Each structure stands twice: as structure tokens, then as C-alpha cells.
Amino acid sequence: MFTTFMLLAAAGLGFRLALAWGLRKHYDRRLAIPDLFALVLLVLAGLPDWLSPLSFPFPFSFTLGTVLPDLLMRRL
Fold first, then answer.
1. How many domains does the chain fold into?
2. Domain assignment of residue 48, given as a range
3. Percent of the chain predicted with pLDDT > 70
4. Which residues contact 26 (CB under 8 A, 6 or more apart)?
5. Which residue of 39, 48, 57, 76 has the fewest CB atoms within a 10 Å radius of its CB?
């Protein structure tokens, strides 16, 4: 049985793959997020609401699934 964390991470990864596929097919562009920006997004998603300097609407697991391909693979 899948946990909510795993399902949200899979949804984030699916969103990322669909967005990358659509950009590549229609506009011949590749989607890449710099490592520093990906880490900042993960930190913002992990902060509690009362400590966050700005409102970040996505949960940590969805954000992790979205930026994980950029953190794991290097594109040249």
C-alpha cells in the first residue's frame, strides 16, 4: 500500500515528465532547473507555515518529486 508521501512524490514526478514532454514536443525546449533553485524550493516546501517567509502552496513530497530528476541527473 502506498503512503500519501509516495503518491504525492509520484504525482510531482508525473507532472514534471508531462511538462517536459509537452515542452519538448511543441516548442523543442528542454526543461532544466538549476540545482540551487531546486534546493531553495525544497527548503521552502519543508519549512513550517509560521516560519516561511512567503507562501508556498505545494507539499514537500510533491516538490521533491518535481525537482528530483534535476538533482539526480546532470544535463550537458
1. 1
2. 4-72
3. 96
4. none
5. 76
